[in-house]
Amino acid sequence: MSHLKIEMTGPIYQCDQRVIYGDTDAGGVVYNANYLRYFEKGRSGYMREYVMSYRDLEEMGFILPVVESYVRYKAPARYDDLLIINTSMQPVSDISWRFNHHIRMAGNDKLLVKGFTLHASVNRQGKLTKMPAEIIEKMKI
Question: Which of 12, 88, 104, 108 is most exposed by smallest CB count within 10 Å?
Fold first, then answer.
C-alpha cells in the first residue's frame, strides 16, 4: 500500500476550480469521476508551467496516457464551492511519471480528495517510447 501514499514534493502547481451544477450528482455533491477531470486540470497546468504544453508534446509525437489512477475521497464538495487543486510530479522511470494531487476547500484548506495518476510515454502507434533527454530532465525537477 506504500504506492498509495500521496506526497506533494518538488514544485507544486496550484489552480482553482469552481464547482458547476453539472459536476454534481442527485445528492448535490461532486460526482466522483469529476475529480479525475480536476486532476487533469492540475496536470495540464503543471506540464505547461514546468515542462511544456501537452499540445507541444503531442506535436513532437508523444502521448502520456493514464495507465493507473487512484482517488481517496475524504469529504464532499458541493455546487459553487471553490476548490484548490495542488499538483506535483514524481518520476517513476524514463518512460513513466506520476502526478500527485490534493484537492482542498478554498478558505478553510480542508482536504477533500487526494490521489494520483500514473502515465506512460508512448508514440502515436501506442508503443512505449523514451522521451528526449531534455524533456526527461525538465520532468525530473
Answer: 108
Is residue 106 within 8 A of residue 70, CB to CB? The reply is no
> Which residue, 125, 117, 121, 115, is CA-closest to 133?
121
CATH number assigned to the domain comprising residue 21:
3.10.129.10
Q: What is the pTM of this model?
A: 0.92
Q: In 64-110, where do the E strands start and end?
A: 66-73, 82-93, 96-105
Cell of 84: 484548490
Whether 16 is catalytic is no
Catalytic residue among 16, 25, 56, 94: 25
Each residue of 11-61: pLDDT tens digit? 999 999 999 999 999 999 999 999 999 999 999 999 999 999 999 999 999
Q: What span, in angstroms and rounded, lies between the C-alpha atoms of 97 and 119?
A: 5
